[in-house]
Design goal:
Elements lengths: L1 E2 L5 H10 L2 H5 L20 E4 L20 E6 L2 E2 L6 H7 L18 E3 L6 H6 L3 E9 L9 E12 L2 E14 H6 L1 E4 L9 E2 L3 E3 L3 E4 L1
């Protein structure tokens, strides 16, 4: 399964929600108790940086007045940080990541998946059979279990080539397994908002439809 740079960021947003300190201390996340453990492919590094120059989420201080900083959410597959304000950090016996937002809670600022070396074309060409996702529909995600199921459309890949359009299908897997199954990351990081990701390929997902 290949996600283009428009749809790939949705996976990061869901992961960040699961890494929220509030979800963690309530036990409402599949990442609870996983700090310091390998939760993704070694190719995956995810950064949250409120000091990114020109970033839409950039800010010098968080909502609690703490100086913001660069945080590594996932480093080479290892979950190295949660997303924390002072309250959620205290509940977990940790330190705030200066991620407090107005209205309460904690949220990433500028969040991105570090790009790889391959072009999108090279990733497609190295895929014998699969789906290039260009649209996602619905919100089928359970943060407690990590179960992921969404409507999708895109282009079918056969023998490394885009073969024909596909619509009205469902793609499904578990986000925890999806992260471990990331086996290719593109070099095409594109910022279309405060969360960004390049083209990425997940080795195994279920595709169902007509």
């Amino acid at each position: 399964m290949i996600f283009d740079p428009v749809n790939a960021p949705s996976l990061l947003r869901q992961l960040a929600g699961c890494a929220s300190g509030y979800a963690i201390y309530r036990g409402a996340s599949f990442l609870a108790g996983k700090l310091g453990q390998n939760v993704a492919s070694a190719a995956v590094t995810i950064v949250d940086d409120a000091r990114l120059r020109g970033g839409l989420g950039s800010r010098p201080f968080d909502a609690e007045g703490l100086p913001t900083r660069r945080n590594l959410l996932v480093e080479r597959g290892r979950l190295s940080s949660y997303v924390l304000d002072t309250y959620s950090a205290r509940k977990l016996g940790l330190q705030s990541t200066a991620s407090a937002v107005r209205g309460g809670g904690a949220s990433p600022a500028n969040l991105w998946l570090e790009p790889g070396a391959k072009t999108p074309e090279e990733i497609i060409a190295s895929t014998p059979r699969g789906l290039y996702v260009t649209e996602l529909i619905g919100q089928g995600f359970n943060p407690v279990t990590g179960d992921y199921s969404r409507g999708a459309s895109g282009l079918w890949i056969e023998n490394g080539e885009l073969a024909f359009p596909v619509e009205e299908i469902t793609i499904a897997a578990n986000l925890a397994q999806m992260l471990r199954d990331v086996d290719a990351i593109g070099n095409d990081l594109i910022w279309l908002g405060a969360t960004a990701a390049p083209t990425l390929r997940i080795a195994r997902m279920t595709v169902a439809g007509e």
